[in-house]
Amino acid sequence: MSKITYTCSKCKAAGEVDSNDYETQEEKFEEGMGTKTEYWTEIETQCDKDACGNSITITLNETEYPEGNFEETTVSSSSGADNIVIH
Ligand SMILES: [Zn+2]
Questions:
Q1: 23-38 confidence digits (pLDDT tens)
Q2: In what order do the strands lie in the sheet with 14-18?
Q3: Distance from Cα 13 to the centre of ligand 1, integer Å
Q4: What pLDDT score does 2 carry?
Q5: How far, in Å, is the centroid of ligand 1 from the Cα of 65?
Q6: Where is this region: Disordered (predicted)?
């Protein structure tokens, strides 16, 4: 995964994080075409503006199925941020 941009839902300031800076957890399932792996990356950050200090949480989900085939990363859930784009 890579760069994530968003706007703070409180002050509308633009922000940017690198998903590689955050820990990714994986869950494996056995399905018809073999192993399916779900990757979950929870990004916890704060608005870049010191005066705002809004807490921002973005959870990303990526599915690998069948093995070696990565589907598009999606935003599973978020709080404190709008207009989240995965680059
Ligand atoms: Zn803000």
A1: 999 999 999 999 999 9
A2: 14-18, 3-8, 81-86
A3: 5
A4: 83
A5: 37
A6: 68-87
The predicted model gives 40-63 an average pLDDT of 96
Centre of ligand 1 to C-alpha 85, Å, is 17
Residues 47-76 have a mean pLDDT of 96
Q: Is the bond into 66 cis (omega within 30 degrees of 0)?
A: yes
Question: What's the 74 CA to ligand 1 centre distance in angstroms?
Answer: 23
Q: How far apart are the first and last CA of the chain?
A: 8
Distance 81 CA to ligand 1 centre (A): 9
Please give the distance, rounded to the nearest whole angstrom, from the Cα atom of residue 19 to the centre of ligand 1.
19
Domain count, the chain: 1
**Residue 67 structural domain:** 3-86
Closest among 38, 64, 45, 50 to 4, alpha carbons compared: 45
> How much distance in Å is there from the Cα of 17 to the middle of ligand 1?
14
